[in-house]
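yo

u said u wanted the structure for the complex thing, so here. seqs first:
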Amino acid sequence: MAQYEIISALTEFAFMRRALVGSMALAIGCAPVGILLLLRRMSLFGDALSHAVLPGAAIGFLLGGLTLPWLAGGGLVAGLLVALAASVAARKSRLNEDASFAGFYLLALAIGVLIVSKWGSSVDLIHLLFGSVLAIDDPSLLIVSSVATITLLWLAIEYRGIVLECADSGFIAATSGNGMRFHIGFMVIAVLNFVAAFQAMGTLMAVGLMMLPAATARLWVERLSMLFVLSWAIALFACVAGLIASYQWDLPSGPAIVLIAGALYCLSLLLAPFGLFVRRKSRHHAI
Amino acid sequence: MAAGAVCAAFIITAMGTDRLGHASMIEVHHLTLCYRDRTAVHALSGRFETGSHTAVVGPNGAGKSTLLAALAGIKSADQGHVHSHGKLAFLAQLSTLDKQFPLMVRELALAGAWSRRGAWRGLSKQDRLQADAALERVGLSDFANAPISNLSGGQLQRARFARLIVEDADVLLLDEPFANVDSTTVDKLLEVQDDWHRQGKTQITVLHDISQVRAHYPQTLLLAQSAIAWGNTADVLTNELLAEANRRAQHWRNDAAWCEVCE
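structre next:
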C-alpha cells in the first residue's frame, strides 16, 4: 500500500517530520509575501533578492560552514542592504524600483560569485543554489518557524495599512505622512522569508514558493482575503506533495516542491476563470 | 518686468501673523515652490477662508498642481510657509490607485475611514453606514460589491469621491477632479461639492473649464506662477485678467530662471 508507506515515512523518520514541519512553516510565511509582491508588481523582486543574498550567504558559509544560522545571518544582512539601498534609490533618484534593484542585485551577485569561486568550491555553490529541505536541522527549524510567526504577527498588525499602501500609495501619503513604514516593514518581512526559504529550497527555488501560489490564486479569486487563503492552501499542498515526491523518487526537494506549484499554475492558466480562456460570469453592468 | 526684480521685490502683505480662531482654513505666506529647478509658484500670499469654495485656474504650467500638493503637505515649501487649520483631504489628479487591485468598491469607500481609524482601530457600524451612504450619494450603490477593476473611468472617479465623503475632512483639495469624466458624472460630482459647501467645508479645486468655474465656484484664484487675481469669481475671471495670465504663460521657457530660490 503506497499511501501507507508514504504516511509512515512521514511519521517514522525524524528528518521527514522536520522537513514537513519546516516546509509548511515556509509556506505559511512565503505565501502572503508572494501575494503582496504580486499586488505591488514586484513579482521579480524575489529573483533579484535571490541573487542579492549570495555574497552574504557566501561570507557566512566561509565563516561558519554550511549551517543555517551563518548562512541565514549573512544572507539576511546582504538581502536587507540591497532591498533598502534599492528602495531608497528608487524614491530619491529618478530610477524606478526595478532599475534600482537591478543595479544593486547585479553588484551583489558579482561579489557573491567572486567570493564563492575564489574561496569556496562548486559543491558549496550547488548547495546554496538548490538547498536541501531534507537536511533541515533543529536550528533551521527554529529559524523557519520564527520567521513564519513574525510574518503572521506583522500581517495581523499592519494588514490594513499595507493593503491600502499597495492599492493607493498616494492616498496613504496624503493622509498619514508617507508609507515608508509599510514599505520598509514589508521589505524586511520579504527578506526574512526569503532567507528562511533558501536553506531548504535553495536561493533559486525559494522564489517559487512565494510567487507561484500567489499567481495561481490570482487566477481563481477576486477577493483579497480569498487570495491569501487560497495561496496558503496551494503553498501547503505543494510543500507536502513535493516532499512526498522527493522521498518517493529520490528527487531534490526544492525543485520537486516548485514543480508541483508550477504544475498547478499551468493548470490554472488553462482552467481558472481569470486564466487564458476568460469566462467571467456576472459582469456588473448598469443597464 | 525683469526676472530678478520679481523675486527681489519683497511683497509685504496685510495678513502677517494674525491668527484667527477659524477651524478650517489655509493661509500661505510668501510661498515659493519649485518644480525641479524651475519656479512653479512665486511669492504667493493670501488666505482660503473657512467655508470658501475656491477654484484655482490658470494656464498649463502655472503651478496649480504644485500649489495644491504644497497645501496638502505633500510638497514642502521652498520659501515662505503654509498654515493650515483643520483636517485636510487631497484628491490628486494623477491617481496612484491601482485599478487592478483586488478591492471592492465598498472597501475603497471605507478606506476614507483610514484617517480616523488608522491601522489598528476597528471599523464601526457607523463607518460602514457612512460608506454606503457615500456610494449612494455618488450613484454607485449598485456597484458596492463589485471589484474596482470593473469600474469605468467616470465610475472610478465617483468611487474616489465616495472615499472623500467618508474621510469627512474640513478642508478639501481637489486637483482637476473632472478631467476625462463625462458630463453626467461631472454634474453628480458638482452636486457633491455643493453639499460640502453647504456643510461649511473649505474647498480648493483646480479646474480648467472657465464656464464651470463661473457657474459653480464663488471664489477664484487666477494663478500664473504668482497670483494674477484672487477673489470673487466675477471679479477675477475678466477677459483682461485671463489674457494677462496667458500672456505670462507665453514667456515661460524651460530654461528660464525666475528666482534664485530654485536655481
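The CA atoms of residues 126 and 156 of chain A lie 37 Å apart. The longest helix of chain A spans residues 138-167.
cya
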